[in-house]
Every structure is written in C-alpha cells, then in structure tokens.
C-alpha cells in the first residue's frame, strides 16, 4: 500500500507506507517507440466539445476521484502497449464528442504522464486513468496535436494466487519472481492498470525505487493521509515473498527491482500491468 501524502516535499517510508514523492527515476525504456494511431478514418470524426475552463474539472491523477468516468469493460486483458502523453493539460471526455469529465495533467508524481490506450475511434482514444474508482477510463481527442503517442512491448502480469510477477518484453519472458501481495484483509486489487510513475528517495530504506500504479486499495479509502495508491516496490527482507504480506502493494525481490530499473532497459512509465 502506498499512502501518498498531499503536503510536504520529502518522501518518508516506514513499513511500506509512502508519504510523498521526491525525485523521479528515468521514465523511458527500451521498446518505447513513436507510433501512429491505427484507426482508419472511414467514418466522420466526431469533434470534441470546447472546454473553456479546465480548472473546473477534477484532475485525472492518483489523488482524484472521477465519478462520471466510464468503467473499463475488459479488465482481464492487458492493453496492447500503445501509450499517450499529453503535452499540455487536456480534457477527458465520457465518450467521443461527449461531456468533459476531468483534466489529464502532463505529469504524475514527478514522472511524465503516460497512459495506456484501450480503444480507438476516428479522432479519439480511450485510455486507462489512475483515479478512483478503479477501472476508470476516459476519452482523449487526437485532433489538436496535444498528445504524443508511443508504444512499448513491456508487460507486467501479477498472479496473486501464485505470488508471482512476470515481466515480458518483445513477447519474451524477461523474468519471473516470487513476490509478496496483499493479505486477505487488505488484498492487492485485481484488474488491468499501468505503471504510473517511478520515484526515488534516499531517506527511506525499504526500496530504492518505487513504482506507483494506476490503481487503489479496495480496503482503504485513505492510508497514512494519502489516497491509498497501490504500487510495486522492493523490501529489505526475504520473508515477505511467496505469501500474503502487505497492505496491498506488490513487494518484489532485489533482482526484480534491478531488472525494472536497469539504466539501459528500464521498465517504461505507462507499461501495462495485469493483476489477476
């Protein structure tokens, strides 16, 4: 469980509780390449409604709640790896040409915002969001050159029953590790999500790098003063692996964390994550 403290500038972590971001780790990685959208414009493009006041919309971040967000209808299948990044804050819509429901910021917890595409329509993409409730999605217009579009071949699959995390790249298994997951009272939430950010802080001791995900605890509405964001991070002892041992986060061994943070091949921000 990651508890993300809204005030303060330093991150202090005890017993797996993250209080605030400090310095982002690199958010680029091997396999992240520019791409073009695959939708053929065989039907008329639905224009986006003008949104004169973005400040009046909730922010699509781990701190936000978007009650009007459409829910992810295919939560048991990881996205195909297409990612988008807003070059400026952009409105999210409930459907192509529909009502604005939120604003997607350019950064999340110190890392550039990269969100996975799960559906496309001419002039539009539907993406996963990091906000509550879990499974929130929204539609972005691709008609005004405010989005950078890339793809990654990285995938992370977490099998809670087997206590296993597997990293895939270029359709090949890079590594698989025994991990710690949430207990029965504080389970790791299931569904498809993504790597929201990469964070480092020398002041905490349990993990040199922490990867918040775009999903939240289903037990805690808040935790340590923050929104109860679930994440992937290391742990200083090995007794937590291969069993339920956390408040919802995924605890990974040192060699897994080293693979995730390899300077030449880091796991990119936006990498799809499927939690079964």
From TrEMBL:
Highest taxon of the lineage: Bacteria
Pfam families on file: YkuD
A single BP term in Gene Ontology: peptidoglycan-protein cross-linking
Residue ranges constituting the L,D-TPase catalytic domain according to the UniProt record: 154-276
Species this protein is from: Amycolatopsis mongoliensis
EC number of the protein: 2.-.-.-
Residues at the catalytic site: 233, 249
Gene3D superfamilies for the chain: L,D-transpeptidase catalytic domain-like
The name this protein goes by in its record: L,D-transpeptidase
Keyword set, alphabetical order: Cell shape, Cell wall biogenesis/degradation, Peptidoglycan synthesis, Signal, Transferase
């Amino acid at each position: 469980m990651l508890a993300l403290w809204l005030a303060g500038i330093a991150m202090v972590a005890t017993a797996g509780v993250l209080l605030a971001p400090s310095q982002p780790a690199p958010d680029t990685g091997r396999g992240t390449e520019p791409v073009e959208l695959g939708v053929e414009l065989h039907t008329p493009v639905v224009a986006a409604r003008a949104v004169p006041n973005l400040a009046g919309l909730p922010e699509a971040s781990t701190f936000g709640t978007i009650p009007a967000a459409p829910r992810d209808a295919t939560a048991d299948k990881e996205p195909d790896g297409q990612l988008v990044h807003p070059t400026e804050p952009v409105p999210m819509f409930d459907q192509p040409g529909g009502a604005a429901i939120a604003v997607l910021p350019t950064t999340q917890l110190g890392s550039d915002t990269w969100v996975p595409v799960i559906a496309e329509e001419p002039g539009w993409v539907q993406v996963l969001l990091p906000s509550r409730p879990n499974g929130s999605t929204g539609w972005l217009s691709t008609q005004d050159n405010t989005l950078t579009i890339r793809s990654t071949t990285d995938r992370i699959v977490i099998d809670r029953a087997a206590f296993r995390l597997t990293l895939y790249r270029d359709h090949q298994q890079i590594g698989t590790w025994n991990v710690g997951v949430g207990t029965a009272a504080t389970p790791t939430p299931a569904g498809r999500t993504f790597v929201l950010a990469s964070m480092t802080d020398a002041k905490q001791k349990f993990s040199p790098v922490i990867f918040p995900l775009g999903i939240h605890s289903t037990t805690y509405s808040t935790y340590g003063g923050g929104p109860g964001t679930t994440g992937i991070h290391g742990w200083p002892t090995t007794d937590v692996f291969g069993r339920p041992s956390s408040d919802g986060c995924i605890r990974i061994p040192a060699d897994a964390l080293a693979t995730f943070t390899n300077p030449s091949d880091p796991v990119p921000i936006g990498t799809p994550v499927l939690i079964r």
